[in-house]
């Protein structure tokens, strides 16, 4: 049990260290399919966060009642309930967004990020911790979706949130709206994240080395590529 | 394929992993031979489509070389412009763009070709797909309309319509004349229209053993067989094999793209399989696909199969039991 981990850490880890998209590579289906604009990204991210947070609280509260043989079915039942709520609310209140997201709202039921957090976290921790974890993961997911959707929208249609920002002579890159653009952008962003975290690790390692290795000794380090 | 060029000059002994293939040419020399072999195609492009095409080609060469140098610099590697590979990618990309294409588009395609087609895999020798074709495929999806707008050749008086022979065949069932297709007086990409100019360069490369003859020969035989089958079924609908060879980017693909050393199979058996399969895909796309031309996608598609082909075409070692 991770009782020693500070509560704030449970929230923060979803943003960067364990970012569901860039680090865990979960929830790729909605990630690649709906991020043609930043608005779709926000909608999808918030819908997933809502489902994730509430199902985590319920499942974590009921974790001692659910027999382990039928746990997956029980999780799906809880998740499906919240997905239905989101689906109906979006249809009633934001019909255009609901149309843009299409079948991907009902598909949150089988989003591996949602199910994965229940199996890996909520079923083993108390509700408060599960709530923070789910909120962090949801936020991380939303940030990733908005970044991807924003990048694709700027290049693919010269707009951001529906406002044209690129100069008139800019010809939109149609590929960015197509599925190929989603894969390209995601791959490049993941490469960037991997590069940044590698650099962070290298800086940390250098700091530790500086502390323990006497300065007069020449420090020889091999390149980690 | 010679040893990797990243070897440190301090070491006298170069250690590289197999396969070791002996060649008359070093990588650098061979690359420059390809550059020379592309000169006839560049001249043909200028003759048929005007001087502006030289600006397009120069643009793509410059941007390719600059991108490669910039990436090498940021990764802290030795800058190796003079190995000629960036220049070849730029030349090839310029030659397969449509005439009068925008300069910004050319630059974008060149950056993608080098950055996403080559350097992201680790540079020359590690790329899976042909960089120039990656750049063109990106442009095809990014600017679908400018990429399929073919200007008429400006040189001749009685030039054929601005449609390419392939799209005329596909959408209007009109077949262009063979002489015009051989010379290049037809609509099409810059360097692809003049079959004669490409053949001169390609035969020169085969003669000095810079490219292996098996892939072009396999592709030609295969397109004759598969294209011929459909031609015999219904000559009014399907074009004859010679049309297949002379039209579109077939010769450019067969002689310069598919024979790229990095992205083609290693041994003879693999090369025959590879060439045959590329032509089969070309014929299928041309006759039944949604696009009039399929050489680019056929080669990229088979590039992905090269590791598999290499795995299953390993020659039997002498003395090994069957």
Rounded average pLDDT of chain A: 84
Largest interface: A-B, 10 and 11 residues
Radius of gyration of chain B from the CA trace?
20 Å
Helix fraction bin of chain A: 55-70%
Mean pLDDT of chain B comes to 82
Major beta-sheet overview of chain B:
none
**Structural class by helix and strand composition of chain B:** mainly alpha
Record field, number of beta strands of chain A: 2
List keywords for this structure.
heterodimer; A: 225 residues; mainly alpha; two-stranded antiparallel sheet; 8 helices; 63% helix; B: 322 residues; 0% strand; globular; disordered N terminus
Description of the molecule:
The complex is a heterodimer of chains A (225) and B (322). Chain A is mostly helical and 225 residues long. Chain A has 8 helices and 2 strands; from the N terminus they run αααααααββα. Chain A has a domain at 7-152. In chain A, strands 1-2 form a two-stranded antiparallel sheet. Chain A is flat. With 322 residues, chain B is mostly helical. Chain B has 2 domains: 27-146, no CATH class; 164-310, no CATH class. The longest helix of chain B has 23 residues, at 27-49. Chains A and B meet through α8 of A and α4 and α5 of B.
SSE inventory with pairings:
The complex is a heterodimer of chains A (225) and B (322).
Chain A: H1 7-12, H2 28-34, H3 38-61, H4 71-93, H5 95-101, H6 112-120, H7 127-157, E1 159-160, E2 163-164, H8 179-212
Helix pairs in contact in A: 3-4, 3-6, 3-7, 4-5, 4-6
Chain B: H1 27-49, H2 52-74, H3 85-95, H4 103-115, H5 131-142, H6 165-172, H7 178-183, H8 195-207, H9 214-233, H10 241-246, H11 250-257, H12 268-288, H13 295-303, H14 306-312
């Amino acid at each position: 049990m991770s009782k020693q981990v500070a509560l704030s850490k449970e929230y923060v880890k979803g943003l960067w260290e364990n970012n569901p998209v860039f680090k865990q590579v979960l929830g790729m289906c909605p990630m690649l399919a709906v991020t043609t604009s930043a608005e779709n990204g926000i909608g999808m991210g918030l819908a997933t966060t809502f489902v994730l947070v509430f199902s985590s609280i319920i499942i974590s509260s009921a974790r001692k009642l659910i027999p382990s043989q039928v746990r997956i079915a029980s999780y799906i039942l809880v998740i499906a309930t919240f997905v239905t709520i989101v689906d109906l609310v979006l249809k009633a209140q934001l019909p255009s967004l609901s149309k843009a997201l299409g079948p991907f709202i009902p598909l949150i039921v089988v989003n591996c990020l949602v199910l994965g957090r229940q199996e890996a976290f909520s079923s083993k921790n108390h509700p408060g911790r599960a709530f923070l974890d789910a909120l962090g993961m949801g936020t991380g997911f939303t940030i990733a979706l908005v970044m991807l959707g924003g990048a694709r929208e700027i290049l693919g249609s010269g707009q951001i949130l529906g406002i044209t920002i690129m100069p008139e002579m800019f010809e939109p890159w149609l590929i960015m709206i197509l599925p190929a653009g989603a894969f390209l952008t995601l791959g490049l962003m993941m490469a960037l994240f991997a590069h940044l975290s590698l650099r962070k690790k290298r800086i940390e390692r250098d700091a530790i080395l500086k502390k323990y290795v006497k300065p007069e000794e020449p420090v020889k380090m091999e390149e980690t590529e | 394929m010679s040893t990797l060029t990243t070897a440190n000059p301090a070491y006298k002994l170069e250690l590289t992993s197999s396969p070791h293939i002996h060649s008359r040419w070093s990588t650098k020399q061979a690359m420059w031979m390809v550059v020379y072999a592309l000169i006839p195609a560049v001249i043909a492009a200028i003759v048929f489509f005007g001087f502006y095409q030289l600006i397009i080609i120069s643009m793509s060469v410059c941007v390719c070389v600059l991108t490669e140098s910039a990436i090498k610099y940021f990764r802290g590697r030795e800058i190796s412009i003079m190995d000629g590979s960036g220049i070849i990618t730029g030349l090839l990309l310029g030659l397969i763009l449509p005439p009068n294409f925008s300069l910004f588009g050319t630059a974008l395609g060149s950056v993608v070709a080098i950055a996403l087609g080559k350097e992201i895999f680790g540079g020359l020798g590690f790329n899976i797909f042909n960089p120039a074709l990656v750049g063109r495929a990106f442009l095809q999806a990014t600017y679908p309309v400018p990429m399929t707008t073919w200007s008429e050749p400006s040189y001749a008086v009685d030039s054929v319509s601005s449609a390419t022979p392939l799209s005329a065949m596909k959408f209007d069932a009109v077949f262009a004349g063979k002489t015009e297709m051989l010379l290049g007086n037809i609509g099409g990409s810059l360097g692809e229209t003049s079959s004669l100019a490409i053949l001169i360069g390609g035969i020169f490369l085969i003669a000095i053993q810079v490219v292996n003859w098996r892939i072009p020969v396999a592709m030609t035989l295969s397109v004759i067989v598969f294209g011929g089958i459909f031609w015999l079924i219904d000559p009014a609908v399907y074009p004859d094999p010679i049309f297949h060879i002379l039209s579109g980017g077939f010769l450019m693909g067969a002689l310069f793209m598919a024979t790229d050393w990095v992205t083609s199979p290693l041994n003879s058996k693999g090369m025959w399989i590879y060439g045959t399969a590329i032509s089969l895909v070309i014929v299928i796309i041309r006759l039944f696909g949604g696009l009039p031309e399929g050489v680019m996608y056929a080669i990229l598609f088979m590039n992905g199969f090269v590791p598999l082909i290499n795995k299953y075409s390993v020659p039997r070692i002498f003395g090994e039991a069957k």
